[in-house]
UniProtKB/TrEMBL annotation:
Location of region: Disordered: 280-321
Name of the protein: non-specific serine/threonine protein kinase
SMART domains cross-referenced by the UniProt entry: S_TKc (SM00220)
Transmembrane segments: none
EC identifiers of the protein: 2.7.11.1
The UniProt record lists the keyword Magnesium: no
PANTHER family referenced in this protein's UniProt entry, alphabetically: MITOGEN-ACTIVATED PROTEIN KINASE KINASE KINASE 20-RELATED, SERINE_THREONINE-PROTEIN KINASE NEKL-3
Residues reported in the UniProt entry to bind ATP: K55
Keyword list, A-Z: ATP-binding, Kinase, Nucleotide-binding, Serine/threonine-protein kinase, Transferase
Stretches assigned to the Protein kinase domain: 26-278
């Protein structure tokens, strides 16, 4: 594992006698921080008289080839140094001196995001979103240039008092990730912020940086590391198999974070859509329903569809329709993920394309499945095929463990902004194409998370059900048992057989 020392200092500057001079030009004045890969110094460029940060990188213990190490550092960091974005720490020079390599870069007088959260606790949502926007801008510039950062973490994100953000250490993780210079079993990057595909031994992708950014923003919003456990092995297991709950983040910020933390890189939210959500969340103001639980707008993983909020004691809500929508089927969640996305004229992730996805069907009056009822006994599976011309009555819902079945419900997503009951009731039908695109993207994303068991997924396909316009526009009664404005995701067998038991993880 590499730990990059923090490149920060306080705002005070003092005269220092040089401790030594590198390459006959850079005077090292004082140590600012150190980590597993070396030391960061406050330095002075004696040629032009400016203060700089100098990162001294030394060959890792146990490595054999100092020449390879120096060569890769020079090549990779110089490549990263060509990036031109306000949120990228500028690299001025890379030099080899003795048995060490020195990266000379812009001196940023600011704390890291890690220090900021340690000092202040969880940050306000709009502040987290603004930090995320700037880091995302830096990553997009890098990805366009074919550069993957590989070690995005709070310790590499510096936040100035005026809100300006700088992302540092481009190229360093890439440069040291070479079997000729890394010791056996060494992890390049910070395990708590390492994307699942990298844990699985795959090459780092642009999407891997997005996952790490999602973990960093989770830390900023929640004040806790999402996957950190007592051992490295437990941390890596959590990254592969768990999804952290959101207690403070909500609305578009929650959607951006959880979209970036989608396990499968191909189903992860694209940078452009993440940026749209972060822009929406960056505006100060409430993004959660009055009196609502922040969890109601977060993506949920890890079990069959679950309650978006646990009902507590007290009088029944004035509008029973929405309560039925949230609790229909006993444990069916309606998860709103569309703030700043779907109703801005495009689905959150855009149209999904997945080899495991079957044709999307419509339900409700005039649809492929004209008769659709949800059973109220907490059953998730149905004993009839989902196909055009079929009916799905309450009697078709069965307990997944009790008998073989043709499909299993694994997600419901509410297709309207979850800001108030009146918004749900007054939402205009967005059109079948948009509804299909959202449903397919949502079902695809959830299918590839740890909600569906890894050992079951190869034998499964999935499909989405969306309401017809007539179904969308009908006025639900107080005892209404259908989601009306929800899109539904079902698992079906990949072959002509039937399903046995449950293919999803149990409720924790």
């Amino acid at each position: 594992m590499t730990e990059n020392p923090e490149q920060h200092t306080d705002s005070s500057t003092r005269a220092h006698a040089p401790l030594r001079t590198v390459a006959g030009r850079y005077a090292l004045l004082e140590e600012l921080g150190r980590g597993g890969m070396g030391v960061v110094w406050r330095g002075e460029d004696t040629v032009i008289g400016r203060h700089v940060a100098v990162k001294e990188l030394r060959l890792p213990d146990g490595a054999e080839d100092a020449g390879v190490f120096s060569e890769r550092i020079l090549r990779e960091v110089r490549t990263g140094g060509r990036l031109n974005d306000p949120a990228v720490v500028t690299v001025f020079d890379v030099v080899a001196d003795g048995d060490a390599t020195f990266i000379v870069m812009e001196l940023v007088e600011a704390p890291t995001l890690s220090e900021l959260v340690d000092r202040r606790g969880p940050l306000p949502a709009h502040e987290v979103a603004r930090i995320g926007e700037q880091v995302l801008s830096a990553l997009e510039a890098a990805h366009r240039a074919g550069i993957v950062h590989r070690d995005v973490k709070p310790g590499n994100i510096m936040v100035a008092p005026n809100g300006r953000v700088k992302l540092t250490d481009f190229g360093i993780a890439q440069a040291v990730d070479d079997p000729r210079i890394t010791t056996s079993g060494m992890l390049v990057g910070s395990p708590a912020f390492m994307a699942p595909e990298r844990v699985a031994g795959q090459e780092a992708l642009a999407a891997s940086d997005l996952w790490s950014l999602g973990a960093a923003l989770y830390f900023a919003a929640e004040g806790a590391l999402p996957f950190q456990r007592s051992t490295t092995a437990a941390t890596l297991h959590a990254i592969m198999h768990e999804m952290p709950p959101l207690a403070r983040a909500h609305g578009p910020l929650a959607s951006a974070i959880m979209g970036m933390l989608t396990t499968a890189p191909e189903a992860r939210i694209p940078a452009g859509h993440a940026r749209g959500l972060l822009t929406a969340a960056a505006q100060p103001g409430p993004h959660t329903p009055p009196g609502g639980d922040a969890q109601a707008t977060a993506m949920h993983h890890g079990g069959p569809p679950t309650l978006a909020a646990t009902p507590g004691p007290g009088p029944a809500p004035a509008n029973r329709t929405r309560r039925k929508l949230l609790t229909a089927g006993g444990a069916v969640a309606a998860v709103a993920l569309l703030v700043g996305g779907f109703f801005a004229g495009k689905p959150l992730w855009g149209p999904a394309v997945d080899d495991a996805m079957d044709e999307t069907l419509t339900y409700g009056r005039g649809g492929d499945i004209a008769t659709y009822d949800i059973d109220g006994r907490s059953n998730y599976c149905v004993n009839t095929p989902l196909a055009s011309g079929r009916a799905l009555a309450s009697s078709n819902w069965v307990d997944c463990e009790d008998e073989a079945h043709d499909a299993q419900l694994f997600e419901i997503a509410l297709a309207v902004p979850e800001s108030s009951d009146s918004d749900v009731a007054a939402a205009t039908y967005p059109g079948e194409d948009r509804l299909r695109a959202f449903a397919e993207a949502k079902c695809t994303a959830t299918f590839h998370t740890n909600r569906v068991r890894d050992d079951e997924r190869p034998g499964l396909r999935f499909l989405a059900l969306v309401p017809t316009e007539d179904e969308w526009n009908q006025e639900p009664a107080d005892d209404f048992d259908s989601p009306v404005r929800g899109v539904l995701c079902f698992l079906v067998p990949a072959d002509s057989g039937r399903l046995e038991g449950t293919a999803t993880r149990g409720i924790a």
